[in-house]
Amino acid sequence: MAPRRSPAPGPPPRSGRGCGMAAARGRVLCLFDVDGTLTPARQKIEPEVDRFLQELRGRVQIGVVGGSDYSKIAEQLGEGDEDSGPRAGRRAACRLSPSHLLSSLMTRAAIQDHLGEELLQDLINFCLNYMALLKLPKKRGTFIEFRNGMLNISPIGRSCTLEERIEFSELDKKERIREKFVAALQREFAGKGLRFSRGGMISFDVFPEGWDKRYCLNVLDDERFDTIHFFGNETTPGGNDYEIYDDPRTVGHSVQSPQDTVQRCREIFFPERANEC
Predict the structure, then answer these.
(1) What sign for the dihedral angle of Cα 30, 153, 181, 113?
(2) pLDDT(93) > 50
(3) Catalytic annotation, residues
(4) How far apart are CA 273 and CA 119, in angstroms?
(5) Residues 234, 159, 90, 270: is their CA dihedral positive or negative?
(6) For residue 234, which of 268, 264, 197, 208 has the smallest C-alpha distance?
(7) Which tens digit of pLDDT belongs to each residue from 153-199?
């Protein structure tokens, strides 16, 4: 039976593959997005969410897949180096818990090697020119963050404070700043093999086609999991969780917050405790 999507809001499906206590049978993996799913955007995981994940590991394998580099996710989910950190990962691979012993999956793919310097510079220059013409209430620093597998573009700048981040997010909802920016990029770079996806509150990602979060599923093909659950908060088209959420290899769950993630997991893997707060 093909995996089924879990709508948002509302609980995951009660029947079919990977639902209820059936989810704990066989080899089951739960993959989690980070920002908005396990943690507030760019903040550290809350102790009660962290404790629940450790309990969940007693029933299923767990892992995370995110857009940030390893050091940022490790900071959010717990300190540790790349060989022993218990709960960290990044796009182009997924880092699983020590009980799964797959920390060597940290594939490192360089966007510059794939795109070539000419296209990469054209992309960066276009973004800088576009942002130079934007008039916002505030602008800070780090407008383009260069990562191994992508570029992260932030019109306000990633060095903004939490209060400034929230202010920009509210303005973006009204004026669709990121949406218009992405539309301009799609027109300018049509046919160049680039994908664009929003994520978090202040930025969007640019990466080669095929380098979205589904990349980790290719890495996991040899692991022969019976069911792979994915939990994410940006699961509508254009969101950076959409492709893996909608992939037939996963049971997708759309969540609204870390607390919602915990509740969904309780309903699936701890049905006897689903009503706990």
Answers:
(1) negative
(2) no
(3) 33, 35
(4) 52
(5) negative
(6) 197
(7) 999 999 999 999 999 999 999 999 999 999 999 999 999 999 999 87
